[in-house]
Amino acid sequence: CCWVVEGGGKFPFWEGQSLGIIPPPSTTQQQQQQQPQIYPITSSRYGDSKNGKTLSICVTEPSLLHNAAATTPGSAIALTGPYGTTAALLPESDPTADYIMVGDSASYRGFVRRLFTENTRISYAYEGLAWLFPVYYAGPAALSVPSSVPSSYEDEFRAVADDFPETFRLSCDGGVSVVEMMREHVGDIFDRLEKGAHIFFRGLDEDIMSRVLDLFRCVCEDKGVDYASWKQGLINKKQWHE
């Protein structure tokens, strides 16, 4: 489900960053022992209210907050963060750049809103392709990594795909893994990266990330390109964002 947190504009953040929530403890000693639960911020920097005073997060397991009081609307919660560097921001200087987004779909919602549904400079100018390969981790059984989106945001993503078919593409199928979905398009992705596209990875576990990288290794081998040099080149040109 989607939670809206009222921060009063005192918790500035950028798209792609995360925050930590520390549940309210019953004693000071418990507070010292509490570890924050990390959640991706799913709104743009303006918040879903578009006034800069709120932010949204996707909570798949409320029990992770360890305290029922924290799930009550209107409850005060302690925030930490934001986490994530500005290197993860959309490079908006080129409105024709392609953005390949792989991983936790909630993490990319802020990108999609900024590009397509909010009145921003880039939303008016954008002419590239934003291509989302989503993974939705709904609890500990996430290793199956179906290519799907949270029900909280599914209608929103699909509406953007319908409204902007030339500039937003959603590649997901609940019965197909994100690795297989990318395998189908990895040649196209490779060509776009060669032409200056940016690729982002969010929330992929080590095994899935390794399999995604293997796809690029295979393409490089087929094309007679040294994979390590190719990837490092993208990193040096700030096109590769992990």
Can you describe this structure in just a few lines?
With 242 residues, the chain is α/β, with parallel strands linked by helices. The protein is 34% helix and 22% strand. The protein is globular, with a radius of gyration of 19 Å.
Structural summary, described in words:
- By secondary structure, this protein is of the alpha/beta class.
- Helices cover 34% and strands 22% of the residues.
- The protein contains 7 helices and 12 strands.
- A 5-stranded parallel β-sheet has the order 9-7-6-11-12, sandwiched between helices. A 3-stranded antiparallel β-sheet has the order 3-2-5, with no helix packed on it.
- Helix 5 (178-194) packs across helix 6 (206-223).
- The chain is globular.
Comma- or semicolon-separated keywords:
242 residues, alpha/beta, five-stranded parallel beta sheet, 7 helices, 22% strand
- The proportion of strand residues reads 15-25%
Series of secondary-structure elements, N-terminal to C-terminal: EEHEEEEHHEEHEEHEHHE
Structural class: alpha/beta
Largest sheet: 5 strands, parallel
pLDDT under 50 segments (min length 5)? 65-69, 138-146
- Helical stretch count? 7
Please give the number of β-strands. 12
The gyration radius over C-alpha positions equals 19 Å
Query: How would the global form be characterised?
Result: globular
Strand order of the largest sheet: 9-7-6-11-12
Percent helix: 25-40%
Task: Please state the average pLDDT score.
Answer: 82
How far apart are the first and last residues' alpha carbons, in Å?
26 Å
